User: Which sequence fits this backbone?
């Protein structure tokens, strides 16, 4: 089906859905498993086919009309199944949505998630999981109910580490195109008598969200130079209270141009870098359990740490530090992009 034909079909389907729907005898005869499948998919908005359908519909109709389309789909699952099965991706919908009945049943209705997250389970981590918190960065600005900018302060704040040469400026954090964007630039900032030649950004959930045990995951795009990760990007969690006694869980940080994981506590900071090229888009995951953290990159287990694992609640952090000490090539301007962050328990 061509793009034009596909859009015409979607437009006609959307018009039909804005009118009263009558479930015919044929609709009533739709197998129960098909109805259950569609109900699960539309209720949780976790199937990529529906997300793509909605994106196409929005090109033709105003938000109010899209709302009516949504209500018709959720209110008439049998009719919705017929509609989606006729769409150009209908085969994929029919063959995969039954799996989503099982997967979406793992999502707690009370969990704080973004509609359409499609996050049934962490990448590669075995077990049964409930999504407790997520940000898909789908809006036009950062959700300040989930994140704050800066490192223990407002406005331009000092770096996390004394080796950093970039101040954290809230203006260097943005959200667009479905991703969080943290950009490092060559612009000096002075804080408490110290001048930092670079400006970059950081976001944290400190005071807004914390967790004890579970799996955290982010999909991140890192730029690089000849396969080496630029600057000092990091996705990590920090313990509530005094560092390092409450722990620091580094899911991914760019050290010497390579992706690395660590866990810092009073017992030290064991960890390792991971072989391979981690420039571009990759998924970084850590499963924190009592006495142990398992690390997964792109769904593959890359290491475990069982020394000094703490139990204090932790909050999430994303930052794009600039430092000339044990980091990758210093490049500015340069942007770290984050597709999503999710927490399961």
Assistant:
């Amino acid at each position: 089906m061509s793009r034009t034909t596909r859009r015409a079909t979607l437009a006609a389907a959307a018009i039909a859905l804005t009118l009263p729907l009558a479930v015919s005898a044929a609709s009533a005869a739709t197998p129960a498993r098909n109805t259950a499948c569609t109900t699960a998919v539309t209720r949780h908005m976790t199937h990529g086919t529906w997300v793509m359908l909605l994106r196409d519909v929005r090109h033709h109709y105003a938000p109010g009309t899209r709302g009516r389309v949504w209500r018709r789909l959720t209110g008439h699952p049998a009719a919705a199944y017929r509609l989606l099965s006729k769409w150009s991706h209908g085969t994929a919908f029919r063959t995969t949505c039954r799996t989503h009945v099982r997967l979406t049943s793992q999502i707690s209705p009370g969990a704080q998630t973004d509609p359409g997250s499609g996050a049934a389970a962490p990448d590669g981590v075995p077990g049964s999981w409930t999504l407790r918190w997520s940000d898909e960065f789908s809006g036009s600005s950062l959700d300040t109910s989930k994140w704050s900018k800066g490192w223990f302060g407002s406005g331009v704040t000092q770096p996390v580490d004394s080796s950093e040469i970039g101040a954290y400026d809230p203006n260097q954090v943005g959200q667009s195109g479905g991703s969080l964007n943290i950009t490092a630039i060559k612009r000096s900032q002075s804080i408490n008598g110290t001048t930092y030649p670079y400006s970059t950004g950081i976001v944290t959930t400190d005071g807004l969200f914390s967790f004890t045990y579970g799996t955290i995951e982010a999909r991140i795009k890192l730029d690089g130079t000849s396969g080496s990760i630029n600057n000092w990007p990091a996705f990590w969690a920090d313990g509530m209270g005094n560092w390092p006694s409450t722990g620091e869980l580094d899911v991914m940080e760019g050290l010497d141009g390579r992706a690395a994981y660590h866990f810092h506590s009073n017992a030290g900071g064991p960890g390792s870098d991971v072989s391979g090229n981690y420039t571009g888009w990759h998924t970084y995951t850590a499963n924190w359990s009592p006495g142990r953290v398992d690390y997964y990159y792109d769904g593959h287990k890359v290491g475990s740490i069982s020394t000094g694992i703490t139990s204090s609640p932790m909050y999430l952090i994303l930052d794009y530090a600039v430092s000339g000490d044990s980091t990758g090539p210093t490049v500015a301007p340069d942007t770290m992009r984050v597709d999503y962050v999710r927490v399961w328990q």
